[in-house]
Amino acid sequence: MVLKTGFFGILLFLIIAVLLSHVFKQLFLMYHEINDKANKDQRTGLFNHSYLEEKLDEYIKSYREEGKPFSFAMIDLDDFKKYNDMYGHPQGDKLLGFVGSIIKEECEPHGYLSARYGGEEFAIIMPELDKNKARAFVNHVRKRVNNAPFDGVDVLPHGCVSFSAGIIEMSADTYEKSQLVGLSDRAMYISKSKGKNVVTVYGEQTYLPQQFEHEINELEQQIRIFLSKDVYTFKHSKRVFSYAVDMAGILELGEEERRTLILGALIHDIGKLEVPREVLTKRSKLDKDEWDLIKKHVTFGKEFLLATGKYADLVPLVELHHERYDGGGYPHGLKGTETPKLARMLCIIDSFDAMTTERPYQRTKSFAEALDEMHRCTGTQFDPELVVPFIRYIERRIELGDIPDEALEAMEQQRKLEA
Question: How high is the pLDDT of residue 411?
């Protein structure tokens, strides 16, 4: 009887223990579920604003006490309001969830913390990354978002889902999280001003020659019209301008030639405003009539400058930047030095950027591939004397890691998608 009572007591104890274990397990799961809901944004599955701010405090503290580096990115979906207004809030919410899932999928394997900051804004904390590696990573995410199909995004200026981002690397000069967020936010708005779908590191703005600043700003207002017609032409013009600023110094041009090259580079494609949008943005191969119309943009640009009068001295660059050294270009088929020197230089810069221009769903040449092409076309398309310093300039920037971190990341992603 005693043995039976003892066995029953042990059995009862085990049953109670199992039940308690199950109850505690359920309570533990409920706690984590509640805690997870408190820290997560239910629309995107990312962490929410409050949790991000808590973690930022922790990372800042670790940096100050242990020197652990990190970079921070603010991301804003481009033209989200336009998409939301056109298709409604439920579809807009799906787009937010779609982008959030891509960001989360890219961040989690690296241990990066991604969050929805609010509205159509996202944020990423990237431990151990300096600003250049952070830019390469965010560009990789941006390109993946660009290439991910989603219903209705063909109506957006880039023809795909896109975002603009700003990055800042934590440093001793950053005293609190509000400054970290504010400066990365400022860099993000610089990305917006460059035509969107761009990643900018705080503090890396394009140098504006002070003596031409007023004219540059005036001409930039003219090309800003492209933001509503063909955002790629706007961004291309800004990049060609940036290259021209550097090349003017490398070639040691005098002030007047320097001004002509820089301003001509900025305004060189202004004639494309006369080309219908459906031709400019067409993704398939142009037919003969469409290609003939595209080629007329140099004549349209010349007529525009002559009509306004003020910048008539820029006409040779606008009209002749598609002439070739071997005489096979347009509109006049000029050969060798029949084309003015600065127009020959602009042809080189314009061609390089066109080869390396990034567009969604289309293959882009890597910087190395573009340089190979420039070597191959030396003496035919390009002036053999002027192309040499430009190639050296690009090679030097590659060595310094000055340009192509983000571009090479995009090219690598492109190759993966093709494979």
Answer: 47
Q: Is the dihedral of CA 209, 211, 217, 223 positive or negative?
A: negative
93: number of CA atoms within 13 Å, CB side?
7
Q: Tell me the CA distances in angstroms from 358 to 122, 198, 235, 367, one per residue in order.
A: 23, 11, 10, 12
Instruction: State the pairing for strand pair 163-169/199-201.
Output: parallel
For 131-196, where are the E strands, in sequence order?
163-169
Q: To 5 degrees, how large is the angle CA 11–CA 14–CA 15? A: 85
Residue 104 CB-half CA count within 13 A: 16
- Is 164 in contact with 187 (CB distance < 8 Å)? no
Residue 416, CA distances (Å) to 99, 139, 297, 409 in order: 20, 15, 35, 11
Question: 3-state class of 240 per DSSP?
Answer: helix
pLDDT along the chain (419 residues), means of 10: 57 70 61 62 92 94 92 96 93 96 97 95 97 95 95 89 96 81 90 89 71 85 86 92 93 91 96 92 87 96 90 94 97 95 97 85 79 96 97 86 51 48
Please check whether residue 138 is in contact with residue 73, taking contact to mean a CB–CB distance below 8 angstroms.
yes
pLDDT at 6: 59
Parallel/antiparallel/unpaired status of strands 199-201 and 121-127: unpaired
Q: Which residues pair with 77 in a beta bridge?
A: 163
**Would you call 46 helix, strand, or coil by DSSP?**
coil
CB 130 within 8 A of CB 171: no
Closest Cα partner for 44 from 150, 115, 108, 131?
115
Contact 201, 234 (CB under 8 A): no
Say what the pLDDT of residue 205 is: 61
DSSP element (H, E) containing 117: strand 113-118
Tokens of 325: 């050294």
End-to-end CA distance of the chain: 76
Pairwise CA distance, residues 201 & 362, whole Å:
26
